[in-house]
């Protein structure tokens, strides 16, 4: 196919505005999938994704469409993850395209993530086609949605396309608009190869399957390619296009989207955003925008029984094969024994990994409260990045500490602004702007310390706004901050896995609340347990858990043995998530309690 007839595009949308439904319709109308093949929303092909309704990783698919001008076009749809944790991947996917469909729910209007992703698309000079979805809903307000697109995003919405992805209304118009409005890719077929990696995944038979967009030159079977960020070289065993599966072709010229295989053993060799070039005839410069993404949130993962340690290691290795942003290293906790310190892009990424370990690999996990990475500068001038509270140096050695900051944009109906301002203040937020987008909608920009937003911030924001607020953020760097380590002691023993790093201003209050919370969460034992909170050597709070009085089975009025057994079984089940720490049994919730105290 001629390059003039190729269109590369993605879909930008806020969660639940209908991206997967629209993608599905496009596949259907172009005959890419038939009714029989249709699985609920093809593009989200991981179970977990479907359940959470979040597109986690990018995927791509090639559609063939005969337009009204009688010509056949090749449309490459590159899907993007819809969550802020994956914004780097979104930016790489967008830079593989010439255009983007901006999908807005007609009953919800523009939301925070839409804004962030539109800015990314504008940075990449993409042609943006506004589409107003869910026009079938009685609450749809197409005109107001158009106004919002113009006011908030400064995009001309006069030619916005009204559609109902669910009912299949207006889908042809979308396809025509893709063909007519989005420019064909350009690129020099004869220049040295430059292709952008926008996704990759691991196949146990073929090695890494690398998704790429060719900008210059041609990639073909048999060629030796070089990854420009690492210099590693691989022989191309196969190139192909992405239909519903992988379809080999002899070569992929400039402008096209497809994949290649090269017996690559590790996905970490196929970094998203990297440039693939021809090893024998390399390009001078890589494509712009490559970043080595670093995890921002860390947490300790421990098997709830020691015998699962090896299984946990193997499972993490398997997950990391397909997720180059997941990092892990062995960690030895005095309280919890051997486990792993894992790094994640953000909280959602963390939850996904933990859930997959438990569900797919059947591991009962004990997880410690997530922490951000602090920069600690010692008196001798040395710098260290610390993500594990247990490794935080002694106060007397520290010159100063810096914490990571984010810039958040929050969209909220004007009725709820008061609640958000209060929450932001509680979380050490600094207001950067407050703007009325209409008489009913407000956009707030705030600087927050990242650690204040990983403490159930999103839930609090939702409950302060009855679920109407939307939130997005970007990292903006480090700032000096007065951070201290709060320790929890059980019967006089400090428990490393319960330590937390928090702002000094809040440390006394938090310490007291945390001790109270521990008293509620730790069940009575056969003996009295003293819970203490301490900063440095100073104990700031003490609570006492009185000893257990009765045997649990005493409730069963003697006789009924099956009930008794059931109760014991249940107790055993509960024990899975209990951990013997010294002499004290501590439940999983206690390790996360620091996230629950205000
Ligand atoms: P994420 O994968 O979470 O990013 O969501 P998404 O944007 O892909 O949304 P999805 O396609 O899963 O749609 C979200 C919900 O909106 C689903 O319940 C869809 O059935 C519904 N939906 C999508 N399009 C329409 C539409 O045109 N009309 C109506 N009434 N509902 C729609």
UniProtKB/TrEMBL annotation:
Broad class of where this protein is predominantly found: membrane
GO molecular function, one term: GTPase activity
GO biological process terms held by the UniProt record: positive regulation of translation
Tr-type G domain location: 4-186
Annotated Pfam families: EFG_C, GTP_EFTU, GTP_EFTU_D2, LepA_C
EC number: 3.6.5.n1
Catalytic activity: GTP + H2O = GDP + phosphate + H(+)
Protein name: Elongation factor 4
Entry-linked InterPro entries: EF-4, EFG_III/V, EFG_V-like, EFTu-like_2, LepA_C_sf, LepA_CTD, LepA_IV, P-loop_NTPase
GO cellular component terms, semicolon-separated: plasma membrane
Family, as annotated: Belongs to the TRAFAC class translation factor GTPase superfamily. Classic translation factor GTPase family. LepA subfamily. Belongs to the GTP-binding elongation factor family. LepA subfamily.
Compartments it resides in: Cell membrane
Chain residues that bind GTP: 16-21, 133-136
Known function: Required for accurate and efficient protein synthesis under certain stress conditions. May act as a fidelity factor of the translation reaction, by catalyzing a one-codon backward translocation of tRNAs on improperly translocated ribosomes. Back-translocation proceeds from a post-translocation (POST) complex to a pre-translocation (PRE) complex, thus giving elongation factor G a second chance to translocate the tRNAs correctly. Binds to ribosomes in a GTP-dependent manner.
Highest rank taxon of the organism: Bacteria
């Amino acid at each position: 196919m001629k390059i003039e007839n190729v269109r590369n595009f993605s879909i930008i949308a806020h969660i639940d505005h209908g991206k997967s439904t629209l993608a599905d319709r496009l596949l259907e109308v172009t005959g890419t999938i038939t009714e029989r093949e249709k699985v609920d929303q093809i593009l989200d092909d991981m179970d977990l994704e479907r359940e959470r309704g979040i597109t986690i990783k990018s995927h791509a698919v090639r559609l063939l469409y005969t337009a009204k001008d009688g010509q056949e076009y090749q449309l490459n749809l590159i899907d993007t993850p819809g969550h802020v944790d994956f914004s780097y991947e979104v930016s790489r996917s967008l830079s593989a395209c010439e255009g983007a469909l901006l999908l807005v729910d007609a009953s919800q209007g523009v939301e925070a993530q839409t804004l962030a992703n539109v800015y990314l698309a504008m940075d990449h000079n993409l042609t943006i086609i506004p589409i107003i979805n869910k026009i079938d809903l009685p609450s749809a307000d197409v005109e107001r949605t158009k106004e919002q697109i113009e006011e908030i995003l400064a995009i001309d919405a006069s030619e916005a396309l009204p559609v109902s992805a669910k009912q299949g209304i207006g889908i042809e118009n979308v396809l025509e608009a893709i063909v007519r409005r989005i420019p064909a890719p350009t690129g020099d077929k004869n220049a040295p190869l430059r292709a952008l990696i926008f996704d990759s995944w691991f196949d146990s038979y073929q090695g890494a399957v690398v998704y790429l967009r060719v900008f210059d030159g041609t990639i073909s079977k048999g060629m030796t390619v070089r990854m420009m960020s690492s210099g590693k070289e691989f022989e191309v065993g196969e190139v192909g296009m992405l239909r519903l599966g992988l379809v080999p072709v002899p070569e992929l010229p400039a402008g096209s989207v497809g994949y290649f295989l090269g017996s690559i053993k590790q996905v970490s060799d196929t970094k998203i955003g990297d440039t693939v070039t021809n090893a024998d005839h390399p390009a001078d410069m890589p494509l712009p925008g490559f970043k080595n993404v670093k995890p921002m949130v860390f947490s300790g993962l421990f098997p709830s029984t020691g015998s699962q340690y090896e299984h946990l290691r193997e499972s993490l290795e398997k997950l990391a094969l397909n997720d180059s942003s997941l990092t892990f290293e062995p960690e030895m906790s005095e309280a919890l024994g051997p486990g792993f310190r894992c790094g994640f892009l953000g909280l959602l990424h963390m939850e996904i990994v933990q859930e997959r370990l438990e569900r797919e690999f059947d591991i009962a996990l004990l997880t410690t409260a997530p922490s951000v990475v602090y920069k600690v500068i010692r008196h001798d001038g040395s710098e260290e990045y610390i993500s594990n509270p247990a490794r935080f140096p002694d106060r007397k050695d520290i010159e100063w500490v810096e914490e990571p900051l984010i810039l958040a944009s929050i969209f909220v109906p004007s009725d709820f602004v008061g609640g958000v301002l209060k929450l932001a203040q509680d979380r050490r937020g600094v207001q950067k702007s407050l703007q009325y987008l209409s008489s009913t909608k407000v956009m707030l920009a705030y600087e927050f310390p990242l650690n204040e937003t990983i403490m159930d911030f999103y839930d609090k924001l939702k409950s302060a706004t009855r679920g109407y607020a939307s939130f997005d953020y970007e990292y903006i760097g480090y700032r000096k901050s007065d951070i201290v380590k709060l320790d929890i002691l059980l019967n006089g023993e400090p428990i490393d896995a319960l330590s937390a790093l928090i702002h000094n201003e809040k440390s006394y209050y938090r310490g007291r609340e945390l001790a109270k919370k521990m008293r509620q969460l730790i069940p009575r034992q056969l003996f009295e347990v003293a819970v203490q909170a301490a900063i440095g050597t100073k104990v700031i709070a003490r609570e006492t858990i009185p000893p257990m009085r009765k045997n649990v089975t005493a409730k069963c009025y003697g006789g009924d043995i099956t009930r008794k057994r059931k109760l014991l079984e249940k107790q055993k089940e509960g024990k899975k998530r209990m951990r013997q720490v010294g002499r004290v049994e501590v439940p999983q919730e206690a390790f996360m309690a620091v996230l629950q105290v205000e």
